[in-house]
Amino acid sequence: MANPVDILSKVIEQTAKVIEEEVDAKLSKLNEMDDDELERLKERRLEALKKAQKQKQEWLSKGHGEYREISSEKDFFGEVKESKNVVCHFYRNSTFRCKIMDKHLGILAKKHVETKFIKLNAEKAPFLTERLRIKVIPTLALVLDGKTKDYVVGFTDLGNTDEFSTEILEWRLGCAGVINYSGNLMEPPTGTQKSGSKITKVEKKTIRGRDYDSDSDDD
């Protein structure tokens, strides 16, 4: 009977050989590239970097990169019209959970410059709250291309706990497609939720006219 150690050593040796051959092939391909091809490759990369920097500056000029309060419903329509991705927090000063949401949104606004993060006092926006059927505070309206595509209502999607992590909220926004999320959308991030909290998968869908309960409203 073959020695398990010998078998393992042979497998490792074969794997290393395959990897070495792949690396050699890539190096060989690079060596075969002439100076003109290398120059074109550098130019393409430089052009991509310039384009990304220009896009970032455009976002920053429109108020991205920071979490801001807007003062009226009129401002809301102007903000969502000029930006492709917008997260709007409908809050109320008397609701403690809105302060918790503020903390996480402030972090994500700096991280996801591709998305605009704003907040609006629901008491100053009776038309919008009625039109969007917002009955729970806090509620995040997730706007893509000028249309409200999804909502984060209270903390239900975030484990139904005040101690949810920024990563969980980031994942939820990623599920809605309102930010560029680099993680796994099929499962919430592990190791970021408190014991006893439960987070379920979220389907990408438009939620309009939903009749929400007000169990997350502190008033």
Structure overview:
This protein is an alpha/beta fold. It is about 45% helix and about 15% strand. The chain contains six helices and five strands. It has helices spanning about 5-30, 35-60, 75-80, 95-110, 125-130, 165-175, and strands spanning about 65-70, 85-90, 115-120, 140-145, 145-155. A five-stranded mixed β-sheet has the order 1-3-2-4-5, sandwiched between helices. A hairpin with a 2-residue loop joins β4 and β5. The longest helix is centred in the N-terminal third of the chain and has 29 residues, at about 5-30. The termini are far apart. Residues about 205-219 have low confidence and may be disordered.
Task: Give descriptors for this structure.
alpha/beta, 6 helices, 219 residues, single chain, five-stranded mixed beta sheet, 45% helix, disordered C terminus, 5 strands
Whole-number radius of gyration? 24 Å
Tell me the fraction of residues in β-strands, as a range. Answer: 5-15%
Structural class: alpha/beta
Average of pLDDT: 83
For the biggest sheet, the summary is:
5 strands, mixed
Distance between the termini: 74 Å
User: Helicity range of the residues?
Assistant: 40-55%
Helices and strands, in order, run as HHEHEHEHEEH
Question: How is the topology of this model organized?
Answer:
Layout: H1 4-32, H2 35-61, E1 67-69, H3 73-82, E2 85-91, H4 96-111, E3 116-121, H5 126-131, E4 139-144, E5 147-153, H6 166-176
Parallel strand pairs: 1-3, 2-3
Antiparallel strand pairs: 2-4, 4-5
